[in-house]
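Friendly challenge for the regulars: who can give me the structure tokens for this chain first? No prize, just bragging rights.
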Amino acid sequence: MEKKAAVFLDRDGTINEQMGYINHISRFILLSGVEHAIHKLNQHHIPVVVVTNQSGLARGYFPLSLLTEVHEKMEQQLAKGAAHLDGIYICPHHPEAKEEQYRRTCNCRKPKTGLLEQAAEELNLDLSRSFMVGDRWSDLKCGTRAGATSVLVRTGYGLGDEQYIGPHQEIQPAMRADNLLAAVDWIIAQIDD
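First reply, four minutes later:
Bragging rights claimed.
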């Protein structure tokens, strides 16, 4: 079976409002237009995979049960816009974690590429034809190092990262978009070419 091109999405600041650690379900707020953007990818049969660092788990700021609840809420809200995700991959680790079970240096914490590689293996995805969309340079580095095309969104930390961090970085995005919908429109044009 042929491997598919996919779109990997960072979560905080790309899908939902960036507000630090989501330590209560009420703090999860979907960004405007996200369900429409993901629905467009679904219509084009492009797998959509969330890849997210969740060191708040490691730091003991919230339990795994809350993270599960947040992801259920995210999927329910996307479903209202006829959108769905093909996978959610999290890195719960941090080298200085308060929670011993998560205390380690791993290969899945972005900008490392482990989450994308795991998803590619499990979902039969072609990283070289895929896209990584995020609001931080760690997302862009992760995508580029995994062989994907990286896209910066100016939501979340995006505007500040673009202005203050980006100019000093060797890795640059292939596209800079105001939001996920604009990024998706560009990505679909690339895949359909």
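The mean pLDDT is 97. The chain has seven helices and six strands. Your move, everyone else.
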